[in-house]
User: Fold this.
Amino acid sequence: MGFFEKLKQGLSKTKTSFDEKINNVFSNFRKVDEEFLDELEEVLIMSDVGMDTSVKIIEKLRDRMKKEKIQDEEEVKRVLREEMKNILDIADTNLKLNTKPSIILVVGVNGVGKTTSIGKIANKLAKEGKKVVVAAADTFRAAAVEQLEVWVNRAGAEIVKMKEGADPASVVYEAMQKAKEIEADVLICDTAGRLHNKKYLMDELGKIHRVITKEMPNASKEVLLVLDGTTGQNAISQVNAFKAETDITGIVLTKLDGTAKGGVVLGIVQENKIPIKFIGVGEKIDDMEVFNSDEFVRAII
Assistant:
């Protein structure tokens, strides 16, 4: 199955929700007027796109409908898809891995799929011929290292680990030495699932940053925030919390195959101007791909 087919299948709940609501709007209105646009805006808000983002999309749709004299249902859907795509196309979705090694720091709260995402990204990079080292720096959660090790081994990457409760920054330091020693292409650093109200965990994130900056000041760095797609608008508040502590370069969105809340992707990008870099639509190690805005929009409308 190609990724677009996986995406369509994985986003089927979101698509059904979107299409059903949008088709209801069309069936209730004979012409595309202000009342129609108000109803369509309400559909977007109810589909977890978010208030501000929904208003922006409808404003763009209104302007284009006047200029292009659009009344046909399929034309309205086409313009709607185009405006959604414009929101999502804010930056290049490819990882910036220009040095050897390059560093990917992975952050997020507990339970969002951080461990599996690291395994899937390591697998993808290994398949591209890159030598990957993973730092198991989530030393707070019981069994976190063991779970990560299973995924890393499956991906054919190397893992650097210490005992539970070890200093996470020390694990990252050792992993950097290992990456240099074996001439790895990419070092992926796991971190403890943290919330913005856990100050000691946020301080730990700052310490990891300082160690990386001191040891590899010129390395290409990506900071990926993993979000659970099923949490809807709550995902946006998580972005805000992490943005206050670290420069997020991209988002990994997981579990979209189990939710009708895929519209939150638009709100996340529009409100934070941070690109979605990876999207997960399944539990297998290959069920993650570089985010493609065109395929995503076509998969939900």
Observations:
- Residues 14 and 135 are 35 Å apart (CA to CA).
- The chain has a mean pLDDT of 86.
- The chain is about 50% helix and 15% strand.
- The beta strands are 102-107, 132-137, 158-160, 186-191, 221-228, 250-254, 276-280, 288-290.
